[in-house]
Amino acid sequence: MNDVLQFGNPVGDYRVKDSAYAVVINDGKLLCLLVRGKYHLPGGGIEEGEDAAEALQREVLEEAGYQVLNLEEIGKANQFFEMTREGHSLNKLGTFFKATVDLENVGQGKESDHQVNWISVDEFLSSTAGDFQKWAVRKATS
């Protein structure tokens, strides 16, 4: 893990969670999700038997209703998060991809608390989104 950027500081005991996220930009707008008042890149946890790309496909479809296309790995970065809804701290090990989505065939995401948004990169970078996600957006847009 030495060559992977680490954001945040560990707080007590924490669990490690492998995750994958997409940086999708269309017409100058970034696809993101508003969840409990915070912006997030689409994506999430990698389940047993999945690789990062497979997890990303599943997560974006579940969260936002989009089929992910043209994956290009940006890199990896991790971030510690304090107490979660699950009652413990996490270190999310993130694999980030630049991607496109099929805008012609949009389904309904299954996550009722995830609001799909297309916002400017600057708005995302100035939000309370996780630093590791902001790093990926900067890297994808530089």
Give a quick summary of the entry.
The protein is of the alpha+beta class and 142 residues long.
Can you give keywords for this protein?
single chain, 3 helices, 44% strand, alpha+beta, eight-stranded mixed sheet, Nucleoside Triphosphate Pyrophosphohydrolase, 142 residues
Largest sheet: 8 strands, mixed
- Fraction in helix: 10-25%
Total helical elements:
3
| Ends distance | 24 Å
**Percent of residues in beta strands:** 35-45%
Radius of gyration: 14 Å
Overall geometry: globular
Mean pLDDT: 92
Instruction: Provide the CATH top-level class.
Output: Alpha Beta
Question: Based on DSSP secondary structure assignment, what is the total number of beta strands?
Answer: 8
Structural notes for this entry:
- With 142 residues, the protein is of the alpha+beta class.
- The chain has one domain: Nucleoside Triphosphate Pyrophosphohydrolase, CATH 3.90.79.
- The chain is built from three helices and eight strands, in the order βββββαβββαα.
- Strands 1, 2, 3, 4, 5, 6, 7 and 8 form an eight-stranded mixed β-sheet that branches.
- The relative contact order is 0.29.
- The mean pLDDT is 92.
Topology:
Elements: E1 5-7, E2 14-26, E3 29-35, E4 38-40, E5 43-45, H1 52-64, E6 68-81, E7 89-101, E8 114-120, H2 121-125, H3 131-141
Parallel strand pairs: 1-6, 2-7
Antiparallel strand pairs: 2-3, 2-5, 3-4, 3-8, 6-7
